Amino acid sequence: MSRAVIIGSGPAGLMAAEVLAQAGVSVTVCDAKPSVGRKFLMAGKSGLNITKSEETALFQAAYAEAAPWFAPMLDAFGPEQAQAWARDLGEDLFTGSTGRVFPKVMKASPLLRAWLARLNSLGVTFNTRWRWTGFEGDALRFDTPEGPQTLVSDATILALGGASWRRLGSDGAWAVVLAERGVPVTKFTAANAGVAINWSAFMEKHLGAAVKSISLSAGPYVSRGEAVLSKRGLEGGGVYSVSRGVREGHPLVVDLAPDLTLETVALKLEKPRGKATLTNHIRKALRLDAAKIALLQEMAMPLPKEPEALARLIKALPIQHAGLRPMDEAISTAGGVAMSGLDDALMINALPNTYAVGEMLDWEAPTGGYLITACLATGAWAGHHAAARLKA
């Protein structure tokens, strides 16, 4: 029987393991951590966003430069297949108003338990606390609690993640090992990251509040959503979606009244305010909540009294910031194994019978179901191709 070794137990690695095991291959999954699927569980702490239900072209466009590369993989395993897979594991799903798809239990743990039970029934073996350190001849070398160990495989799937959330296992240390073997690896950078802001003392009472129903933009990247005023800066889905623009050096701009035109905002502000303070006038005229007004004041004091100038500020508030939060705090990373180093099956050109999947590939996409779907899709793609190659 052919033997495959999967290194990394995130969604990409586990999907590759499932596909190979179903094809009759003996599969061993190795992970450096004491338990499997740690980042998958963390992703589900606030609701596991499995995928997004939207038109195919729009969904695939979210992968930007990687879209043509990912297209065949997402055609084979896209949003519909991701939902069918989760339901087959016993999960009831629901689709939110934005098209995002979640398990009804809003957790990752039940899905992971069902998935591991399936993999166990398929005969998949799990080696935890096995940290991959490279190669020893044709064998894979690991540091383990029992000392150095080696495994020989007919097919190896590397699913080692990117370079964020080191404590969950994604430390990017594998990049040095692969680069030494001639694999092209691009530099890691933060993706889907918060924006660092050094708040004044004025903002202390507002920290933790959500700035809802806003539009954010950074160059060509635009998002409609919300942001959280955290101690460290601005965080949340709306911010993560435009963080690439911030990383590329574009100004970060927030529209505090995205449902109103500039002209409408100006007209509302022209109404007499009597004895009301300017901030109270803004609140009443535009129904802006305390968090929005606090952000406006923090970024633009003293506020202009002239209605048109104030309206322009409310519709396009420049955010003064200190760049993105550190890469290890980012939800995902860009960079990794370059497309040029892989064939169409995701096999590494410099390492025959060795494949790379998931976040260790050089791609990025916003949050909203795109990340997990692509990890599942690349894992399935490499798994099917590796199984076919082993049979041949």
Give structural attributes.
392 residues, alpha+beta, FAD/NAD(P)-binding domain, 2 domains, 5-stranded parallel sheet, 14 helices
Describe this structure in words.
By secondary structure, the chain is α+β, with helices and mostly antiparallel strands. The chain folds into 2 domains: 3-190 and 333-391, FAD/NAD(P)-binding domain (3-Layer(bba) Sandwich), CATH 3.50.50.60; 195-318, no CATH class. It is 34% helix and 23% strand. It contains 14 helices and 19 strands. Strands 12-15-14-13-16-17 form a 6-stranded antiparallel β-sheet. Strands 6-2-1-10-19 form a 5-stranded parallel β-sheet, with helices on one face. α1 (11-22) packs parallel to α14, α4 (67-76) crosses α14 and α10 crosses α13. The longest helix has 22 residues, at 370-391. It is elongated, with a radius of gyration of 24 Å. It starts with a strand and ends with a helix.
The tally of strands reads: 19
CATH topology of the largest domain: FAD/NAD(P)-binding domain
Nearest-angstrom radius of gyration? 24 Å
Structural class: alpha+beta
**Can you identify the CATH class of the largest domain?**
Alpha Beta
* Outline: elongated
Strand content: 15-25%
**Mean pLDDT across all amino acids:** 95
Helix content: 25-40%
Number of helices: 14
Low-confidence stretches: none
Q: Please identify which CATH superfamily of the largest domain we are dealing with.
A: FAD/NAD(P)-binding domain
Largest sheet data? 6 strands, antiparallel
